[in-house]
Amino acid sequence: MRKIIFVSIIVFFIPLVSFSQMQNLNVNVEGKIFHNPKSETNRILGTPYTQSKFAYAEIENIDQKHFMRYNAYSDNFEFITFKNDTLEMIKTDNINNITFTNPHKKYSYVNYISSTKGRMKGFLVELYANGSFALYKKEAITYYAGKKARNSQESDLPARYSKVSYSYFLKTKAESIIPFPDSKKQLIKLYPDKKEAIEAFVKENKIDFDADEDRIKIIAFLAG
32-64 burial string, b = 16+ CB within 10 Å, else e? Predict the structure, then answer.
């Protein structure tokens, strides 16, 4: 396995090692930021990817574009080499943004606060930014292990991935990334000094806290 990884890394990094060193990437002696992901079985139903096909993406601090895809189960990116080897990116603070070019979609590697898991670090999709404020979306997929039938009247349950789920985050003026308020009451709780302005804004614009376009309006309102 180590030999396979090493060969794949050399193919990928011949054009990148010198550039990586110039950008002070925190790489090891083999100069790699990718490694082989765990192999997957075809018996698993569903997919861990938000988009199964590889697409061109720009990696911050790396000169060339590469074919990549996002794994929403592992919260990481995979890269395909010219020899069709699939490698998984090693997360590093020197690579904070990965942007797909067509269609445009920007992932940011950030610290954020999850309403269920507390402080986290991972990839969020940047949907909109205005000044110090920004709207992010988290894409998540859950893996469920298979189960063997307990008797002849039951059937085996195959392992499966869930459908992608989304949660939303607000980057505040203080640059904290917190769960996006899901109601007028929650928004006022965050900004009690703007209570009257928020009530008027929500009423006049008929704000739906479950709609992306209205979340963007809220960001623009806060940044204004």
Answer: bbbebbeeeeeebebbbbeeeebbebbbebbee
Closest by Cα among 19, 46, 63 to 165 = 46
d(CA 184, CA 43): 45
**How much of the chain is helix, strand and coil, in % rounded to 5?**
25, 35, 40
212 CB-side CA count, 13 A:
10
| Cβ–Cβ < 8 Å for 81, 11 | yes
Ranges of residues in the chain with a pLDDT under 70 are 1-42
Note if the pTM is more than 0.70.
yes
State the Rg of the chain over Cα.
Answer: 21
59-97: per-residue pLDDT in tens?
Answer: 988 887 889 999 999 999 998 887 888 889 888 888 889
* Residue linked to tokens 């376009």: 213
C-alpha closest to that of 92 among 169, 42, 28:
28
Helix (H) or strand (E) run with residue 220 in it: helix 212-223
Can you tell me the distance from the alpha carbon of 28 to that of 33, in angstroms, rounded to the nearest whole number? Answer: 8
Share of the chain above pLDDT 90, in %: 59
